[in-house]
Amino acid sequence: MIPVISSFLHEVRYIIFFYIIGDLISTQAALRLGAYEANPFLISFTIAVILKLVFLILLFVVYRSLQQRKLSWDICRHSIAGIGVIATVSNMLVILWGSSLFQLAGVV
């Protein structure tokens, strides 16, 4: 089981870096500067961490189920990592310029 977990953690390293760590840290920094959290499920840092860990566990289940479908797994993990990059960049823009990526793009 350890090699499977090790392989999983290697394959989701960008998800861990951007979607989990990057988003959590940059969100907290933005909140401390007066920004607000748009996601109603993330009402505290503790809840955000718990939800991210639950997500990682569920992603492991998906990883195990898609081991025979490499393309599907690659699309899944790259999409999630991309969302993490967008979330982290958006939070960093809030920190630096006071507006999110979506506000600067005129989406919200």
Structural write-up:
By secondary structure, the chain is an all-alpha fold. The protein has one domain. The chain has helices at about 1-10, 15-30, 45-65, 70-95, 100-105. Helix 2 runs antiparallel to helix 3 (about 45-65) and helix 2 (about 15-30) packs parallel to helix 4.
Sequence stretches where pLDDT stays below 50 over 5 or more residues: none
Which quaternary structure do these chains form? single chain
Give the total of beta strands. Answer: 0
**SSE arrangement, N to C:** HHHHH
* Inertia-based shape: elongated
Radius of gyration: 15 Å
**What is the helix content?**
over 70%
Key phrases:
single chain; 108 residues
Could you provide a short overview of the structure?
With 108 residues, the protein is mainly alpha-helical.
Show the helix and strand layout.
Elements: H1 2-11, H2 13-32, H3 45-65, H4 70-97, H5 101-104
Helix pairs in contact: 2-3, 2-4
